[in-house]
């Protein structure tokens, strides 16, 4: 920091050139209204546009790629392509932030109880026959007799969450949809159970989910949004009780990229 006239404080720190160029490329994306799938200008064009070196452009593009905004390919026809920021990447950034916070399972379900009923109710009018088929398939996967094998249990817990993702995808509110999908992904990635969790307890939780999911689907087929909202409140109230009885806990460490890409976990999830 440096003092200027009249004692004013001036911040003499400056962003690195690649960071400044990355910000300018973001502005370019906005001004040209580029969408996922659209290509950025070629590297040589970006060099001329911003009067910087090839290495600076490449560092800027790499920064945007790390942020999840673009994908960079090499070779003829390569360069930067706009992509939709992956939910997994957003989760990783959020979990990095929450790593230093005292967040509990109760905290997550308190928010979920507020959002999920409105998400489900708002989805009712937009659910298609394909959506109902997907909901029924998800329920059927969880309703099969337990083979008492870890893989089967993990798959059923995954489907419990997939049920909610199907409802989320049908809701037209993009911010509400994103918020609930992010919470669902946190539940998949961060909640784990102890190895000594009784199979009978896992089975009770699974059957409770099947029962309420069937009721929610039935009400949704009848286009009864109020009933769906009411049932989802019940569901979101009961779920954390089961999780705590099964000694569920949040993983207290940062998620690695390799773990994010690994969709099937070694521990049962809710």
From TrEMBL:
Keywords: DNA-binding, Transcription, Transcription regulation
Membrane-spanning parts: none
CDD domains membership: WHTH_GntR
Gene3D superfamilies tied to this protein: GntR ligand-binding domain-like, Winged helix-like DNA-binding domain superfamily/Winged helix DNA-binding domain
SUPFAM superfamilies in the cross-refs: GntR ligand-binding domain-like, Winged helix' DNA-binding domain
InterPro entries linked: GntR_C (IPR011711), TF_FadR/GntR_C (IPR008920), Tscrpt_reg_HTH_GntR (IPR000524), WH-like_DNA-bd_sf (IPR036388), WH_DNA-bd_sf (IPR036390)
Pfam families xref list: FCD (PF07729), GntR (PF00392)
Domain HTH gntR-type: 15-86
GO molecular function: DNA binding; DNA-binding transcription factor activity
PROSITE patterns: HTH_GNTR
Descriptive protein name: Transcriptional regulator, GntR family
